[in-house]
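Run: sequence + zinc ion -> complex structure.
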Amino acid sequence: MRTEEIKRSSTVFLLSLAMVLSIVSVTFTFTQLSLAQPEEERHLIVISIDGCRWDYLQDENLINIRQMIEEGAVANHMVITNPSMTGPGHITLLTGAWTGKHGIMLNQFYDRQLGFINFFGEIPPEEQVNYLQAEPLWVPAEDAGLNTAAVHWTSTAGEYEGRRVDTVVPFSSMPDHDRIEHAIQIINDNKPNLLLVYTGGVHSESYNYGPGSDEVKNKLRIIDGWIGEIFDAVKEAGLWNSTDFIITSDHGFTEGYSRQICPSYVLANIGIGYEFVLWGAFGHIFLSNPDQAENAKTLFVGMEGVDEVYTKAEIENLNLYNLYNENRCGDVVIVSKYGYQVAGSMWGPYENAVENVHENRYRAGSHGYPGDLQDMWGIFLAYGAHIRRANLGEVRQVDVAPTIAAIAGFPPPEDADGEALNVVKTIFTSILPSESEGLPGEDVIFLVTVKNTGSTAENYLLENVDNSGWALELENNVIEVPAGENRTTTLAVTIPENAEPGTEDLITITATSIENENVSDNDSCIAHVIPPKAELSLVALYKVGLDLDLYFDNGSKLVVKFYTYDDAFENENVIETFTPPWHVEENKSARHPEGIGVKKARLVLTYEDTENVISTIASFTVARDDIFGRVMEIKGRWPIASPDERNALFQEIMDIKGQWPFAPS
Ligand SMILES: [Zn+2]
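>> structure
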């Protein structure tokens, strides 16, 4: 115990010495100082929660997601591509392009040249990518040399212009948790730089039980637990400090619709030929003769359930809903009202222009409406080592892919319509050491480092706050840090003269870019007053040992007073006479002045007159354990002791025998 404390004291001393030396060198080399650090590997895990509406994340029971929201960059909501469906949404997340540009108009679609494409139903996973008309983000990621992986994410299994995702678990109907297990396995085995993971449970529960139902809430809580499993896997793989996470979704959800518009019935009745009617809240009508588009459009204007009708030319010229696509946009596009959707021609024939949805096709939840409709809004949340804390307000689904690229460090996909969101932290503030201690009146020194990982030099304003009001002084309040470098300055914390031993001050330094106040980071450190330490122990029956590390700003003597077991004063021994402030850090011993056995000893601080006690610093009562320890020492000493020493030891044993019956156990 005692040697440990001596060791600790000398460690503190060596640390302070090292600190002083480092301050000296920092002072001299400050302007050139750059603590070069190797470019670290980055990892990004993107999790899609299918059908997760913007407001679902408010649930307090989502432990991991709530933590991400509190510490990361979170959107209030995300505007979805049109229509707000799984296929178009996931391809927008993958390409950063709106639906008309990437060409996946719905989970199935019609193409003037290729005919009906049952994208989710019949196209094998490795061929889905062949139908994309915009570059998926894993292409520039591969070109940047990143290790990529995808679990159950549409259109990641095949080859796009000669590039493929390194590790793929293709889109299939496996249970959600199996997907998480695959993801964890990939994190362990491959440590990918970019991992895309899809989960589907919220989507299916929303269809079956309606948006916001208990079933949906429960499913989201389960997925939150899986996010925790992924966190654990990342920690176990040693990647926590280099990994970021994005949680996003393809669309929101609203109540099911009960009425459907049947264009194929309307057109057949009037004698206008059509090739195909693609269903949903955006109904695409492909006419046999596209020249009849204007005529066909007039049939639907003002019809029950129809909100808007456009010709393909209007969709193109007015850039409506970002839906224009040369071969895949209908000649006429019907946008249905809330509560209605367009019925596809492949399920006909229909017997009315508008009719009730057949009972066995009705679902409690639905989506597919315009992506700026509140219930269709999705989620976006970024969190991790390189993510700043921010409220992003409204974001767009097309911004996600460029943001993924910015976080993971590769160029955005070339067809992206969106832009990277401002989520990447470009400033890292750190203070070393995190804790340090000193005596009242002394300065405790910390090193404050600001790292700029942005692309331009920045000037940072350094501000400090503390909770004990001690004097703080930064060597520099403004520091300029070139792009990709770091700079260090010192913080001196002056411990007040009257600070009580054991008290502390928590200091937080915030560095904020003068050019951009959103670029900000902070770190904290603690300065302690050296805690007092005074321990008494039995050295011989007649002598106590003192292990001291004490600071005095008043008093003039340190005295050991000896008492009987009944607290009657026997005598005293002055250990030290001093002038405050005074710091004592050593091991001493004090004899009983009368050479009799020590029963009780008190270490006290006094004024010049030792009866004038200021405080009792430590007390010690000699117990049987202490005496027994001494007896064992004597036993060990005896064989090598000289005749004179044996006489003394024998006398001590006799005195111990006399004291033993009175000593407390
Ligand atoms: Zn979906």
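>> summary
The radius of gyration is 38 Å. The mean pLDDT is 91.
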